[in-house]
Amino acid sequence: MTQLPWDDDPSLVADLREALAPREALPPDFAAAARAAFAWRTVDEDLFLAELSFDSSAPQGALATRAGSAAGARLLVFDGGGYRIDAEIDDDGDAIGQVSPAKGGTVCCQTPDGTFAEAPIDEAGCFSVRTPAAGAVRLRVRAGGRPVSTDWINLGRRR
Amino acid sequence: MSEFSGESTLCLVRAASGGDERAWGALIDRYGPLVMAVIRRFTLSRADAADVNQTVWLRLVEHLDRIREPEALPKWIVQTTRHECLRLLRAGTRTWLYDPLDGAAETLVSTAALAPGDLDERLLAEERRQALRDAYAELPPRCRELVGLLLVDPPLSYEQIGERLGVPIGSIGPTRGRCVHKLRTCPALVAFIGAAGQSDSHVRKEARRDAAAVG
Predict the structure, then answer these.
(1) From CA B49, how far away is CA B32, in angstroms rounded?
(2) Does B123 touch chain A if contact means CB atoms closer than 8 Å?
(3) Per the omega criterion (within 30 degrees of 0), is the bond before A10 cis?
(4) Interface size, chain A vs chain B, as Cβ–Cβ contacts under 8 Å
C-alpha cells in the first residue's frame, strides 16, 4: 500500500473489489449476544458512566502493577460522575474495593443477564461483592445521588 | 440488502443512540464481520471469543452517545476488540516472577507467540477494508450499481454496462468518474486517508510497546 492509498482509480477499484469479497459473519450466538447488548443502552439520563481508567491486566497496564500485590488479582479503576471506584477481583471471585468519595449506599454486580449480586458500601466507601466465574460484568453504585455504572469488563474464564 | 444499506454510519449511530433497535441491528450487520476478522487474528477458545464479542458490543452500546465522528468507528472497534483479545491472551499465559534484587518491579513472562508488527499491519488492513465497505454502502443506489459493475471480474465492456444500467455508452465514462469521486470523498474514506499516516505510526508505537511487554 502506498503512502496515499487510492491515488488513482484502478487501485481504488481493485482494493474495493477485495474489500467487498465475502466475509465471515458473526456466528448466530455471537450475533444474538450483540443484539441483546442493546437492552443495556443507558435510557436513564440520570445515570453516570464511570469509565475504566486503569486495568492491571491490560496489555499496557500489566507492567504497572505494583510489586507485592496478589499474583492473580486484577486491579481496576473507574472514574466518572464525580466518583472513583477502585476494585480488585481476587482469585475467589470477589470484587473488593472502595468508592470515593464515601457516601455509603449499595454496589451491585451486573451481568448481561441481569443482577448477579448486591452488597452494601460501608461508611469508609469499602465494599465486597461477588462476581460470576466468567464473562462480562459491570458494577453499579447507588450512593444517594445519581447512580453510577462502570464500563463493562470481561472477567475471562481462567480463574 | 436491508433497509439500512444506504444509510451512513452517522445516521445509524444516531438512530441507535435514540433507541432504534433496527439501526443497532444494521450496525451489527455492518461491523460484525470486522469484530470477527479481528478475533480470528488471535488464538482464542470459542468461549473466550464469545466473551470478547459480547464485551465489545456492550461497550459500544454505552458509548453510542459519545461517538462524535462515526468515521472513527471501525478504528474504535478494531482497537477495542484487539485490546480485549490481547488482554485475555496475556492473562492466560502470564507468569509473575519476583526478583529480590529489584523489588520495585516484577518481570512478566509470556509464552504467547505474538508478532505485533505483522498483526497490526493486518488489523490496519481490516480497518482500511471496512472504510471502503462503509464508503461503498453510503453511495447513492445508482452509483453503487455502477461501481458494482466496474468490479465484475473479468471486466465488463462499457457496452455491457450501458445495457445493464439502461444508459447510453457515452454517459458511462463521466458517470464513472463522478461516482468514483463520490466514493473517494465519502467521510468514511476521507477520515481514513487523512488519518492514515498518523494512525500508522500510532499503531506501530503500540506494537513496539506490546513487543517490549511480551519480551
Answers:
(1) 13
(2) no
(3) no
(4) 173
| CA terminus-to-terminus distance, chain A | 43
The mean pLDDT value of chain A amounts to: 84
Handedness of CA A84, A90, A95, A96 (dihedral sign): negative
Tell me how crowded residue A143 is: count the other CB atoms within 10 A of its CB.
18
Of B50, B61, B65, the CB nearest to A29: B50
Q: Which of A40, A91, A154, A158 to mutate to test the interface with B (most CBs of B within 10 A)?
A: A154
Q: What is the pLDDT of residues B130-167, one digit of tens each?
A: 989 988 988 888 899 998 898 887 888 889 999 998 98
Pairwise CA distance, residues B13 & B130, whole Å: 16
Q: In which band, very low, low, confident or very high, does the pLDDT at B52 lie, cut at 50, 70 and 90? A: very high
The whole-angstrom distance between A103's CA and the closest CA on chain B is 25
Cell representation of residue A38:
442493546
Q: How confident is the model at residue B176, as a pLDDT?
A: 87
> Does B35 sit within 8 Å of A26, measured CB to CB?
yes
Angle between helices B73-93 and B21-39 (to 10 degrees): 50
The bridge status of strand A74-80 relative to strand B95-98 is unpaired
Compute, in degrees rounded to 10, the torsion defined by CA atoms A100, A102, A105, A111: 20
CA contacts within 13 A on the Cβ side of B38: 29
A7 Cβ under 8 Å from any chain B Cβ: no
Mean pLDDT of B113-124: 71
- In terms of Cα–Cα distance, which of A121, A91, A100 is closest to A109? A121
Model confidence at A127, pLDDT cuts 50, 70, 90, reads: very high
Q: How far apart are CA B215 and CA B19, in angstroms?
A: 45
Q: What is the pLDDT of residues A42-83, one digit of tens each?
A: 766 667 889 999 998 887 654 444 444 455 688 999 999 899
In angstroms, the CA A45 to CA A25 distance is 34
ipTM: 0.85
CA dist., res. B9 & res. B135, Å (int)? 9
- Using CA coordinates, name the residue in chain B closest to A159: B92
> With a threshold of 0.90, does the pTM exceed it?
no
